[in-house]
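Researcher: Structure prediction, please.
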Amino acid sequence: MPSGFCGIPMNLAIICVAGGMGQRFGRDKLAEPLGDSTVLETSLTALRSAYPTADLCVVLPPQQLSRWRLSLEGTFPGIRLVGGGSRRQDSVRNGIESAVETGADIAAVHDGARPMVDPLDVRSVVEGLGNADGAVLCQAVVDTVKRVASDGLILETVPRDELRLAQTPQVFRVSSIQRAWAEGDFGQEWTDEAALLESLGMQVQTVSARHANPKVTTELDLQFLRVMCEERQ
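Model: Predicted structure follows.
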């Protein structure tokens, strides 16, 4: 675990969010095989490789805790399993609040459906937090972006220089995310915690990913990740 940065002692907790039910995918995509492991186990391996001694918590659907506990606790000693909520943001909150109980003051939140995240990128976004409230691993937009009307007609071409695709991990000071929960509109559905912090004018730093970090959303994504996994081995 890193001892600190910017002169501030740091107790890091890593929260891997796996609380979804795989409705868009059609089944539990995190249990799908990826090389010699599963999608979720591959994600956890990358996170633990980045910070071997950091507190590691995985948030799962409550009804799946027992099943995953059997396979995860032997492979990842000291891992904590927490039940998720009805929304992604509820699952993240459950994970961070559990980490607070262990003394964490920095939380790195990662989507378990991004199994190929590089440990170096995990470290980069944690170290990139600096004095900000949060930091987000991002990818530059390389395609031309069009804004369109409801009928599909192009309204304009959007300059891409200032656009980024948000990925995970996303890293937050626990004090900042707690303030956002207290002062922000938590009843609104947020696509990520960075957006909640942004709504309050809090500082969120971007950190460019140096390696591919795709997400499993469709069957085609899974096939692509399996090719990536074979190439890495």
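Model: The helical segments are 39-50, 65-75, 88-100, 119-127, 174-183, 193-199, 219-232.
Researcher: Thanks, that helps.
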